[in-house]
Design goal:
The protein is mainly β. Helix content is about 5%, strand content about 35%. A hairpin with a 6-residue loop joins strand 1 and strand 2. The two termini are about 25 Å apart.
């Protein structure tokens, strides 16, 4: 995987911009508007188990996400902290929604066009898998600094 390093996301502050996203089979499609927070790569054990590797996601206001098709969307509660949104038809991991938060994390790979969004940092690096190394120059944070 080739990551762009040391780059600040320039289009996040440009105001509302509509982005479209979907799961692998099209059973869940959505639009997200407005400012998106810099994408993070989460290396916690839960994210690795739900995705098979780390979870690259961007944060948005929940009210900025509009589902255009959600027949396949289901939510699974793997912890007391929040819920994982995925497509029940194809199994695509799509969202992470924390309890008591007005934000939702959207899997970066589900967006049709990301524009100028690049990974900003790695979080929960203290629990990353022992089968890989983080080889880019992005900041590595223990825990989550949001």
């Amino acid at each position: 995987m080739r990551l762009k390093t040391g780059c600040r996301n320039t289009n996040n502050s440009a105001g509302p911009k509509m982005r479209e996203g979907m799961c692998l089979c099209g059973g869940v499609t959505f639009e997200v508007s407005g400012r998106l927070a810099d994408p993070r790569a989460c290396h916690c054990k839960q994210c690795r188990r739900q995705t098979g590797h780390y979870f690259a996601a961007v944060r948005a206001q929940q009210t900025a996400v509009r589902f255009t098709k959600d027949e396949g969307l289901t939510w699974y509660r793997p912890s007391n902290e929040g819920s994982l949104g995925f497509c029940v038809q194809c199994g695509s991991t799509l969202f992470w929604r924390e309890d008591e938060s007005d934000h939702i994390r959207i899997a970066l790979g589900t967006l049709e066009v990301t524009g100028n969004l690049y990974l900003d940092r790695h979080i929960h690096v203290e629990t990353k898998g022992d089968y890989y190394k983080i080889a880019d120059t992005l900041p590595q944070v223990k825990g989550d600094d949001i």
